């Protein structure tokens, strides 16, 4: 069987070149053939290139019949800018279906490719991140197994690995029965930003997955309520959470008493408005309240996102939430 061919694009922020070189070498060491779009190495203000150039890179590789996989080099921000351009210029009937890989800001492109182009998509680590070339053996196995399975490169008679993720309850509605449905989602802020646009994800019949980085608990709570009020959980079957990295509960500082200078109080004259909560505890409260309002199972502990672990998830594919003994688990396959 011919090697898996990968085209790397940079649909969002500027790319760190040393990290990308290390990531490309790690992929080549696994036997993948790599092609890097020239726009990856550029810079236009905050981005690797202009919106038009980044969109054109995606279009060129989407139309390249020699490629099996398109891989986002890294996240950052700016991927949502490309969606109208891609919608206008890509005809899914005229291009070979591919596998798209990425996460974080690439959430918008993953959902676009899955729904508009009918591609397979993987929420997985990206080669221009510092952590990519140092992925743990289990993370590599998770990633490569899904790539082979969903790019059509499994050997004859070889089935994909139905990986099992042990989880923990945030909210368990009584009575709990196994839940089966496609997993969709990704970065919470990006998913939330698509609400109200033609590219918003659908929750009906789905298990929603979210992860996040550097958003405080108040903003996360606001996003969750916005999604709920906008119908973003309508018809959902459950919610599973990955890493919420550096997502802290914060409280503003207020006067202990009237300071000597109202406009320049000293640190000693200030105190927190309220006691802050441990991040895990605060997030559990937010998502437990959501589960209770919606009567949906909510689970946490998926080892993926912006934290220290980054396993891979096949978006749009059926997963099962069920019990293994007393432990709730998420398993690929109905």
Summarize the structure.
The chain has 334 residues and is an alpha/beta fold. It has helices at residues 17-29, 51-62, 83-89, 107-116, 137-150, 188-193, 217-229, 279-294, and strands spanning 5-9, 33-36, 69-72, 99-102, 120-123, 164-166, 168-171, 179-187, 207-213, 238-245, 253-255, 270-272, 298-300, 313-315, 318-324, 327-332.
Number of domains: 2
| Alpha-carbon Rg, integer | 21 Å
If you average the pLDDT, what whole number results? 95
Are there runs of 5+ residues with pLDDT below 50, and where? none
CATH fold category name of the largest domain: Glucose Oxidase, domain 1
Q: Would you tell me the structural class of the helices and strands?
A: alpha/beta
Beta-strand percentage?
A: 15-25%
Count of DSSP-assigned helices: 8
- Helix content class: 25-40%
CATH homology-level superfamily of the largest domain: LD-carboxypeptidase A C-terminal domain-like
Distance between the termini: 28 Å
Helix and strand sequence = EHEHEHEHEHEEEHEHEEEHEEEE
**What overall geometry do the principal axes of the alpha carbons give?**
globular
| Biggest beta sheet attributes | 8 strands, mixed
Name the CATH architecture of the largest domain. 3-Layer(bba) Sandwich
Please tally the β strands and state the result: 16
For the biggest β-sheet, the strand order reads 6-16-15-8-9-10-13-7
- The CATH class of the largest domain, by name, is Alpha Beta
């Amino acid at each position: 069987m011919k090697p898996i061919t990968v085209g790397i694009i940079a649909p969002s922020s500027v790319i760190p070149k040393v990290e990308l070189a290390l990531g490309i070498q790690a992929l080549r060491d696994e036997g993948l053939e790599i092609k890097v779009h020239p726009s990856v190495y550029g810079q236009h203000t905050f981005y690797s290139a202009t919106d038009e150039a980044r969109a054109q890179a995606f279009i060129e590789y989407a139309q390249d019949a020699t490629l099996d996989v398109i891989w986002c080099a890294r996240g950052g921000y700016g991927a949502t800018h490309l969606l109208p351009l891609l919608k206008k210029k890509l005809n899914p009937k005229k291009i070979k279906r591919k596998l798209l890989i990425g996460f974080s800001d690439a959430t918008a492109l993953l959902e676009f490719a899955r729904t508009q182009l009918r591609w397979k998509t993987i929420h997985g680590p990206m080669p221009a991140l510092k952590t990519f070339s140092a992925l743990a053996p289990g993370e590599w196995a998770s990633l490569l197994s899904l790539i082979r399975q969903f790019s059509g490169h499994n050997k004859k008679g070889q089935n994909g690995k139905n990986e099992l993720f042990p989880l923990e309850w945030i909210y368990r509605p009584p009575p709990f029965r196994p839940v089966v449905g496609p997993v969709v989602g990704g970065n919470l802020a990006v998913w939330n930003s698509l609400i109200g646009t033609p590219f918003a994800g659908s929750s009906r019949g789905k298990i929603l997955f979210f992860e996040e980085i550097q958003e405080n608990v108040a903003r996360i709570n606001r996003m969750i309520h916005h999604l709920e009020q906008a119908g973003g959980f309508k018809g959902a079957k459950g919610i599973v959470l990955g890493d919420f990295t550096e997502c802290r509960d914060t409280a503003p500082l207020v006067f202990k008493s009237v300071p000597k200078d109202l406009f320049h109080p000293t640190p000693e004259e200030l105190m927190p408005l309220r006691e802050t909560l441990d991040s895990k505890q605060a997030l559990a409260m937010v998502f437990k309240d959501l589960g209770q309002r919606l009567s949906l199972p909510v689970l946490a502990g998926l080892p993926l996102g912006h934290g220290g672990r980054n396993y891979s998830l096949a978006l749009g594919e059926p997963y099962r939430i069920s019990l293994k003994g007393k432990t709730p688990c998420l398993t690929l396959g109905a």
